[in-house]
Amino acid sequence: MSDSQFPxxxxxxDPLENYEPKTYEDPLEQALAEETVSxxxxxxxxxxxxxxxxxxxxxKLAGLHVACLLVEQEGKLVGVFSDRDVLSRVAExxxxxxxxxxxxxxxxxxxxxxxxxxxxxxxAVMAVAGYRHVPVLxxxxxxxxxVSPQRVTAFLHRYFA
Amino acid sequence: xxxxxxxxxxxxxxxxxxxxxxxxxxxxxxxxxAKMREKKLGCTVVVDPDRKPIGMFTESxxxxxxxxxxxxxxxxIEQHMAEQWPWVRLTDPIADVLEAMELKNVRFLCVVDQQDxxxxxxxxxxxxxxxxxxxxxQVMVQRIGGKPYPQDREGA
Lengths: 161, 156
Hints:
The structure holds 2 protein chains of 2 kinds.
Chain A: H1 27-34, E1 47-48, H2 54-64, E2 68-73, E3 76-82, H3 83-90, H4 94-97, E4 107-108, E5 113-114, H5 119-129, E6 134-137, E7 143-147, H6 149-157
Chain B: H1 3-9, E1 21-23, H2 29-39, E2 43-47, E3 53-58, H3 59-68, E4 87-89, H4 94-104, E5 108-112, E6 118-123, H5 124-134, H6 136-139
């Protein structure tokens, strides 16, 4: 210890010097914890404005063979429109709804993840909250993609080689 | 035991199977859709009188039909179902579910017993739940939705 009333930098004891980083037995567990959502394929994705007619949105889902469209207004995510919305809100009244804007029947305020979140966060939205498609945003809240169960499955497969 | 080893060894019966929505020939699309909505499930398995699967109708098929704009919901379901659909047995390894979903690009798989009778449904959601259960320390503790950190600094 130096004579000064304050300890010298040489006397400083790093509280983390004995810290041992967490070790993982399973490489997938490590990836779920330490990678980011960006490690899961999240492109391509399809965006539509909220005033898109329901019929055009249904045709886009069918024509592109995708299960979910991201509804975006001025760069911000405002909803999703998926096969499940077609089943739940559209199919039985299709003739009455097909000219209405998709914002009338989409799922508002979908749960999303940030691209910097861990892959485990995307998995939690699917397995715990029960949503199959998880929009991905950057930290400026701009849409950058969507994670689907197929894409998570492909991510898992990388660790099963 | 690692997840890879588990999915090779553990049988499909270890997955949380879902109660399927079923229909018989002659059921209309409208009736099937109403049941799918009620059960919050994206498919109907068409079965014969012995409960053996003979076809599948999914919500993505419904989207395709609506986009063609030429379908009546009063059509019988067998006119629009897929007759070839992958299935697994209760005793098959979970790896078979993963493989079928990836190679055949399906969301749902019929689960049948040794007599080929339908006993449940599995698929993407069941598999995600299985992985989550395997790593609860990573998955079950996640914040779901919202900002990753405060936008404004606290203090001065």
